Amino acid sequence: WGDTTYTPDSGFLAFPLYVGKTWEVKASYTKTSGMRGSYVLTALVAAEEKIGELLTLKITYEGRYNAAASNGRSGSGMMRAVHWYVPSNGCLAKSTYEDTDWSGSLYNRNTIMLVNN
Asked: What's the pTM value of the predicted model, to 2 decimals?
């Protein structure tokens, strides 16, 4: 997501974090490609989970995005993500993300894993 600027910020972490906490994640974004939009997600700290030797907080996100391309086209879709946050060192051990295109079909799906901490 290095090509994206969020206003006010991405909102994905809201401290303090604890199992059962929920919050609304709301932000606008601009990509270097000219794409602009916003999203509203519901976040939930769902559980504590071990990833290898790391104790993590599993945080789930679900909601919708709206986007407008630089060519004038616009639409909306669904977003889902899961972050496994490591409180002891302040990083993510793992992150999954998927979204749909404007017609509702799967568009992006990726997983990022921490190799060394």
From this structure: 0.89
Beta bridge mates, 25: 41
Which tokens sit at 71? 């060519």
Distance, C-alpha 94 to centroid of its chain: 12
**Contact assessment for residue 90 and residue 56, using Cβ atoms and an 8 Å cutoff:** no
Two tokens, residue 101: 């295109």
C-alpha 77/C-alpha 63 separation (Å) is 9
Q: What is the spatial order of strands in the sheet that 91-100 belongs to?
A: 4-7, 22-31, 36-51, 54-68, 74-86, 91-100, 106-113
Could you tell me the two tokens for 32?
């270097």
Q: Average pLDDT over the chain, rounded to whole?
A: 93
Residue 37: closest CA among 11, 59, 12, 5: 5
